[in-house]
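To fix ideas, we close by showing one paired sequence and structure record:
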Amino acid sequence: WVKLSEVAVKGAQYNSHEHQPHPKCLQGTQEDLLKYIYGFLDDTEKNHLIWLHGTAGIGKSAVAFTVAERMRGIKVTEETNIEKQLAGMFFFSCKHTKCCTAGYFFMMLVYQFATNFPSIQKDVNRTICDNPALLDPDTPLCDQMEALFLQPLWKLQLRLHRCPPLSFVIDVLDE
């Protein structure tokens, strides 16, 4: 866990001081879009991928932060564990070396994921102990994705099958 926390890109997460102040939607703006997104995220029957696209400066990051803020405050419960519906976030940024490369992407997501869902921390620790090379940013992304992201997600999915879907927010992927 210590090794994972050392390579986790703290500047890429929601509450990072590097993203202060958060570019949130102003009261009364983007209401239709936010309602549409929340409708998808609240649907317990399906998993969804929502991709916001458009020209620079139209407010995609503000929408992403606003959605993340809402999902961060929602808890899911199953078997008396209280965990967050927002499972993880990554905000790419060309200003910071570790935030502009995909090599740290899955490490940061699994760090937040395991922090928000302590029930998978042991599995993540075991995976890293079995293969410490997964924490090398030059490890193939497909290997990191499978071991650090998909396997813990699958184990958690079995336990939370009747709960609202988990949310991951990724912003500025084009950087």
Observations:
- Helices lie at 2-7, 31-41, 60-72, 105-116, 121-130, 141-159.
- DSSP finds six helices and four strands in the chain.
